[in-house]
């Protein structure tokens, strides 16, 4: 199953892009992983970050980061507050749970009455 991420925070940086040297195109994005299927919906604490330059449309990988970029990134990462991890059951799961509980009760009553 493919991992899904949603954007939690986007920061525009004033640093120079290591590819095209423009200083108004860099954007740092923090994303957090979530899982959604038939039974539940969950936000995990897995964080992913990407830096892209909107001027030259290039993703700037950490190997290309300058010292300045690394400093800014460290600062932003410290300031970043991730969404708390959550786990929510969907309706189908609740229906199944209730059905199982009812079944157990019915079975118990049946067994005790005999
Ligand atoms: Zn660029």
Features:
114 residues, alpha+beta, five-stranded antiparallel sheet, 5 strands, rod-shaped, binds zinc ion
Summarize, please.
The chain is an alpha+beta fold and 114 residues long.
| Shape type | rod-shaped
Radius of gyration: 24 Å
Tally of helical runs: 2
Taken as a percent bin, the fraction of beta residues is: 35-45%
H/E topology pattern: EEEEHEH
User: Kindly state the mean pLDDT as a whole number?
Assistant: 94
Which residue ranges are poorly predicted, with pLDDT under 50 across at least 5 consecutive positions? none
Integer tally of domains: 1
State the distance separating the first and last CA atoms.
Answer: 48 Å
Structural class category: alpha+beta
Query: How many distinct beta strands?
Result: 5
| Biggest sheet details | 5 strands, antiparallel
Instruction: Estimate the helix proportion, in percent.
Output: 25-40%
Spell out which ligands are present. zinc ion
Structural features, described:
The protein is α+β, with helices and mostly antiparallel strands. It has one domain. The chain contains two helices and five strands. The chain is rod-shaped and about 85 Å long. The structure holds zinc ion (ZN). The site of zinc ion has 9 residues, from loops.
């Amino acid at each position: 199953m493919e991992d899904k991420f949603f954007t939690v925070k986007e920061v525009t940086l004033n640093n120079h892009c290591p590819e095209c040297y423009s200083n108004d195109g860099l954007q740092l994005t923090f994303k957090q992983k979530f899982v959604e299927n038939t039974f539940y919906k969950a936000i995990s604490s897995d964080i992913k970050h990407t830096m892209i330059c909107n001027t030259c449309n290039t993703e700037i990988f950490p190997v290309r980061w300058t010292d300045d970029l690394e400093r800014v990134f460290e600062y932003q990462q410290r300031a970043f507050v991730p969404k708390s991890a959550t786990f929510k059951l969907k309706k189908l799961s609740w229906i199944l749970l209730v059905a199982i509980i009812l079944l157990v009760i019915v079975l118990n009553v049946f067994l005790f009455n005999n």
